[in-house]
Amino acid sequence: MKREAVIRRKTRETEISLSLNLDGAGRSEINTGIGFFNHMLEGFSKHGFFDLTLSVNGDLAVDGHHTVEDTGIVLGQALKEAVGDKAGVKRYGSFILPMDDALCLCAVDLCGRPYFHFECAFPTERVGELDTELVKEFFYAVSYSAGMNLHLKMLHGENAHHMIEAMFKAFAKALDEAVSFDERITGVLSTKGSL
Q1: How far apart are CA 153 and CA 121, in angstroms?
Q2: What would the pLDDT profile of 129-149 be if each residue is shown by its tens digit?
Q3: What gap in Å lies between CA 31 and CA 33, rounded to an integer?
Q4: Which secondary-structure segment (H or E) carries 94?
Q5: Rounded to whole angstroms, how far apart are CA atoms 58 and 72?
Q6: Cβ atoms within 10 A of the Cβ of 133, count?
Q7: How far apart are the first and last CA of the chain?
Q8: Is the whole-model pTM more than 0.70?
Q9: CB distance 79 to 142 below 8 Å
């Protein structure tokens, strides 16, 4: 069974086309109009072994907010669709990822209930063309759209580029674990019998 999703979303602010394969090889083709954001999503794809194709045409003449937030919404929708009924998957995933001075903790639960916790103060307002405050908006949108618990905590960091990159890669590794199969699991991993 292929765990894939294709999502298209068009509003007055953004037009987004995204395809996701959870069982990929980490291949990506990404164009959001924001160079550093592209780089982060390429890292997410590579380190999570997700194949990701993404095209975003957003109102960047205003700012990057709608582009980044709406990309998070669409990625969350794709994750929710691709993972399906979650039968046999581990459900939980966590990772602590170092990137030079940065050390990021990420924990995921694909429980169907959205909850988001973010603990990080960036030392700069921008990295390249990306406003650092939009990093939180992106992950919030992913968690709520996918219906997952997502906790991100920067344990240490001094360089905003390293901190954000550690965050995206830690999320990729934690999510890869959560969507992976365990042959010991019959149905879904829940005492309730459903997620």
Answers
A1: 10
A2: 999 999 999 999 999 999 999
A3: 6
A4: strand 92-99
A5: 13
A6: 13
A7: 19
A8: yes
A9: yes
